[in-house]
């Protein structure tokens, strides 16, 4: 029913087995039935009840409680990190970005990121009213 609604084809047993082998390499399928009428049983799969939230890198430089050397080092590190991100984005998108705000606006405009987040809304309100007019948000 889902495949018909979305217009996609379902996986055949062989392709599904390949996908399972890639995702769960330690789970071994058990063949049930006679040759030609085989069904595969993937036992030992359990749903995790509690997932640990992923840790995200700190994008803010800590400047209030640190000494001036640490602050300068952190600013230098942050600047270098931004430069690396700009290089990566320019290589990926084939376009130069003048600032992080410019890069963020580009990502929102071309829907590379979710435009329903608080961060996206803040960027849209502060620096990109043209995106709101286009109906991106």
UniProtKB/TrEMBL annotation:
Compositional bias annotation for Acidic residues: 64-74
Ribonucleoprotein recorded as keyword: no
Region described as Disordered: 51-76
Species of provenance: Araneus ventricosus (Orbweaver spider)
Protein's UniProt name: RFX-type winged-helix domain-containing protein
Domain of life according to the entry: Eukaryota
Domain RFX-type winged-helix: 1-49
UniProt KW keywords: DNA-binding
PROSITE patterns in UniProt: RFX_DBD
GO molecular function: DNA-binding transcription factor activity, RNA polymerase II-specific; RNA polymerase II cis-regulatory region sequence-specific DNA binding
Keyword Iron-sulfur on entry: no
PANTHER family with a match to the protein in the record: RFX TRANSCRIPTION FACTOR FAMILY (PTHR12619), RFX-TYPE WINGED-HELIX DOMAIN-CONTAINING PROTEIN (PTHR12619:SF21)
């Amino acid at each position: 029913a889902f495949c018909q609604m979305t217009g996609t084809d379902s996986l055949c047993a062989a392709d599904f087995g390949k996908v399972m082998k890639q995702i769960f390499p330690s789970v071994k399928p058990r063949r049930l039935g006679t040759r030609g009428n085989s069904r595969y049983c993937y036992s030992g799969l359990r749903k995790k009840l509690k997932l640990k939230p992923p840790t995200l890198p700190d994008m803010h430089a800590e400047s209030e409680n640190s000494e001036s050397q640490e602050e300068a080092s952190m600013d230098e590190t942050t600047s270098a990190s931004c430069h690396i991100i700009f290089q990566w984005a320019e290589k990926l998108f084939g376009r130069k970005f003048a600032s992080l705000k410019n890069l963020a606006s580009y990502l929102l405009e071309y829907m590379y990121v979710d435009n329903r987040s608080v961060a996206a809304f803040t960027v849209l309100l502060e620096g990109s009213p043209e995106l709101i007019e286009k109906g991106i948000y």
